[in-house]
């Protein structure tokens, strides 16, 4: 990492150019940069011609204004210095695989990502949250990206209540009302179209996963082809899919449900989102009850009831036998998705073989035709 400090002007520009053109860095830390003149800017321009894209990190507001007004924010990848905050002693609202949500104060909450998440992933979540908000989806407004110790976080507007998961658990007299609102929010999301390319296509994402080297190691060539064939059979649509649509990722604000945790937002088949509900409420509550309670916010013994009611309200199916068949159909999509997610699991090489046996070979392969029919609709 190359560091710039002090002021860069016509007096020290020759020395600065000699140093930076010798180092040829692609990333420059500008935390100590107080000012840069046109002479310094031209050196940065020459650097981009020499190495390609250059990222300037930790830029102060004053230096950012210079880069912005001169058009250099379109030439360079410029990142402002992040505000640093502490979550020590703050209330934990929810915790999942990607990070932990804290209440900062009456006005704001912060989602702190695990340290493995790079800044690019976090910036993408902010961009996706903005795209969904503009499209009319009730989402928490994202303010700024912050530094929290060795991790990054995104600050959101605070809600007047808790998560939907906690409300379902703590207010049994309103449980059915909340589940109905949950289903209505899902249907609104799944009828919203974004076709401007601002959100990645689910089909493209899944094809990348089907070609992941980890899966290529675990599966036979024939099994890999089956996975690719199933992805290819998916209907091409631009409706929004949240990717992690459990009640712990939904806040309540003045009676309205609002989505958070938009990092897995894609455009694709709604059934994929429904399968995530199946995963968290029907399966996770049985296989990992403590983890489910922490992330979803619902007592494990209540999760199956909530999940089944959600699926009934979402699908509109009232006949018990038809509902059972619908839930089995969602279970097939869940199994297919888990197989494609193997490369993202901690200890994928150790856990993968068991998942391949239990889900790919025992569930997905015997039901390929049924899955194709589900995914093509």
Structural description of this entry:
There is one protein chain. The protein has 377 residues and is an alpha/beta fold. The chain folds into three domains: 2-81, Transcription Regulator spoIIAA, CATH 3.30.750.24; 91-157, Phosphorylase Kinase, domain 1, CATH 3.30.200.20; 164-375, Alpha-Beta Complex (Aminoglycoside 3'-phosphotransferase, Chain: A, domain 2), CATH 3.90.1200. It contains 15 helices and 14 strands. The strands form four sheets. A six-stranded mixed sheet has the order 5-9-10-8-7-6. It has a four-stranded parallel sheet with strand order 1-2-3-4, covered by helices on one side. Helix 10 (270-287) packs across helix 13 and helix 13 (320-341) runs antiparallel to helix 14 (348-364). The longest helix is centred in the C-terminal third of the chain and has 22 residues, at 320-341. The radius of gyration is 24 Å and the shape is globular. The mean pLDDT is 91.
Number of domains: 3
Helical content, roughly? 40-55%
Q: What is the beta-strand fraction?
A: 15-25%
String of helices and strands? EHEHEHEEEEEHEEHHHHHEEEEHHHHHH
CATH topology of the largest domain: Aminoglycoside 3'-phosphotransferase, Chain: A, domain 2
- Spans of at least 5 consecutive residues whose pLDDT stays below 50 are none
- Please report the number of helical segments: 15
């Amino acid at each position: 990492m190359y560091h710039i400090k002090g002021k860069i002007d016509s007096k020290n520009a020759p020395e600065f150019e000699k140093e930076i053109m010798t180092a040829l860095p692609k990333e420059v830390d500008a935390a100590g940069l107080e000012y840069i003149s046109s002479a310094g800017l031209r050196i940065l321009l020459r650097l981009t011609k020499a190495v390609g894209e250059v990222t300037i990190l930790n830029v102060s507001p004053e230096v950012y204004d210079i880069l912005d007004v001169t058009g250099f924010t379109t030439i360079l990848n410029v990142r402002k210095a992040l505000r640093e905050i502490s979550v020590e002693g703050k209330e934990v609202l929810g915790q999942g695989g990607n990070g932990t949500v804290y209440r900062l104060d009456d006005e704001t909450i912060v989602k702190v990502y695990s340290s493995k998440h790079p800044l690019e992933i976090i910036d993408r979540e902010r961009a996706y949250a903005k795209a969904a908000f503009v499209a009319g989806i009730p989402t928490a407004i994202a303010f700024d990206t912050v530094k929290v110790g060795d991790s990054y976080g995104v600050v959101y507007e605070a809600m007047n209540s808790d998560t939907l998961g906690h409300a379902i658990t703590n207010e049994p007299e309103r449980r059915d009302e909340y589940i109905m609102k949950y289903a209505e929010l899902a249907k609104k999301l799944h009828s919203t179209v974004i076709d401007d390319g601002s959100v990645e296509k689910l089909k493209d994402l899944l094809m990348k996963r089907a070609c992941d080297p980890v899966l290529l190691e675990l599966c036979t060539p024939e099994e890999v082809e089956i996975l690719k064939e199933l992805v290819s059979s998916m209907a091409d649509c631009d409706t929004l899919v949240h990717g992690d649509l459990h009640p712990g990722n939904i806040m309540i604000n003045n009676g309205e449900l609002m989505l958070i945790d938009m990092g897995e937002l894609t455009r694709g088949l709604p059934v994929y989102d429904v399968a995530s509900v199946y995963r968290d409420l029907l399966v996770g509550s049985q296989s990992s009850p403590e983890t489910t309670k922490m992330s979803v916010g619902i007592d494990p013994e209540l999760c199956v009831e909530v999940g089944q009611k959600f699926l009934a309200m979402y699908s509109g199916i009232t006949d018990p036998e038809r509902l059972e068949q619908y839930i089995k159909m969602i279970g097939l999509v869940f199994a297919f998705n888990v197989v494609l997610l193997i490369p993202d699991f901690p200890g994928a090489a150790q856990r993968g073989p068991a998942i391949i046996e239990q889900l790919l070979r025992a569930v997905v392969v015997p039901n390929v035709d049924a899955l194709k029919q589900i995914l093509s609709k």
